[in-house]
Amino acid sequence: MTHAPLPLSPDRPWLAPLAGYSDLPFRLLCRAHGAACCETEMVSGKGMLFSSHGTGRLLDTCPADQPLVVQLFGADPEVMAKAAEMVLARGFQFLDLNAGCPVPKVVKAGSGAALMREPARLAELALALVSRAGEGRVGVKLRLGWTHDEQTFIEAAKRLADTGVAWLTLHPRSAAQGYSGSAHWKALAELKSATSLPVIASGDLFSAQDAARCLRETGVDAVMFARGALRHPGIFEDLREILSGRSPEPLTGRRIAGFVREHAALIAEYGQPRKDLLKLRTVIPRFVHGLPGSKEIRKRMILCHDWAMVHELADMLETIDDACVEPGDNDLVAPMGEAS
Predict the structure, then answer these.
(1) Which residues are annotated as a binding site for FMN?
(2) Among candidates 16, 23, 21, 22, which has minimal Cα distance to 57?
(3) Which of 130, 156, 164, 303 has the fewest CB atoms nearer than 10 Å to its CB?
(4) Which positions bind FMN (predicted)?
């Protein structure tokens, strides 16, 4: 397996780890439309040790799926070190430690955003990964802290800088906030000023315009799309167009039809067509959100039971030349288990 260096610049956007969504076919779809780097879905350190079949599927990849970062979560440094060894033995080179997931089943085990309550333990876990992967190969994804009044992200960043981690990603909400309210972008600028490590922004990047504004206002090194990419896989190339001073292609029905057909073809080649058809029933309604006539398309997609119907829906989309209305903050519900 060959590896390209990790891109860390404003015009090289990343795809976030999205539990249940950022599988190999979706990553390849996003890469085809400008994603410069992708992360796997969250992988359990314990799941790796117990050789869970589900965990193994999360690591499915191919030569075109590069550069790729494997995101691990866990609370035991020894377990995480062993899990890292197993991941590296499979040919992966880059790791990301999740300290941002606020989902109850994750934080109850002391993992994910629960680690923001213990910056010293977080640093210990990061060091365990760096000791296996080497300096320059490990990142950490952070939240502001456990609550808005208990912000520990600056302390965590300072401790992590001493462990040899190579980059930090910040979703500027507290763990208690989950995905509600607004992301506090000012904290991104604070983190950028407080550390010499590259900083990637995540949170409330629902459109390419949002990302361009975030880059301008915070001075971060790069951005990572989560919910924005689930709605619009071309958000990556749109950002590149904006940063180059050009207007991105409108998100019309015809453009969305292309995404649907590409995704279906990638699932046929790399996915599990029967299982992934059910997943697509939740993905396509996100693609068409805000499109004139989308209510009927969503209704048909929910009832879709074979791939022929998916292609019929793509044909319907081809006839819609109007563009989608840009989503508001409350229009994009976070997928269960989103890792950001």
Answers:
(1) 71, 141, 171, 226-227
(2) 23
(3) 303
(4) 71, 141, 171, 226-227
